[in-house]
Amino acid sequence: MNPDSERVDPIEVDARGLRCPLPVIRLAQAARDAPAGTCIVVLASDPAARYDIAAWCRMRDHELRELTEVSEMTAVSDSSGKNGPPAQSDHLGYLRFVVLVGPQQSKAGGTGSGSERSSRAM
Amino acid sequence: MLPAARATLMAALDAGWADPRRLYTEGRGARALLDQAREVFAQGLGVRPAEVSFLPSGPAALRTGLEGLRHAGRRRGARMAATAVEHSAILVTGRYHAAAAQDPSLFAEVPVDRLGRVDLSALEQAVVVPGTVLAAVQSANGEIGTRQPLERAHALCRTHGVPLLVDAMASLGRDAPPRHFDVLAGDARSWGGPSGLGVLVVPERTRWRRPGPASEVENGRTDVEPMIALALAAAEAWRQTEANRTEQIASSSAIIRRLRAAAGNLSDVNVVGDPLDRLPHVLTFSLLYVDGEALVIELDRRGFALGSGSACTSSTLEPSHVLAATGMLTHGNVRVTLPLDPIAPTLDDDVNRFIAELPDAVAAVRAHLGASDL
Question: Average pLDDT of B265-283?
Answer without folding.
Answer: 96
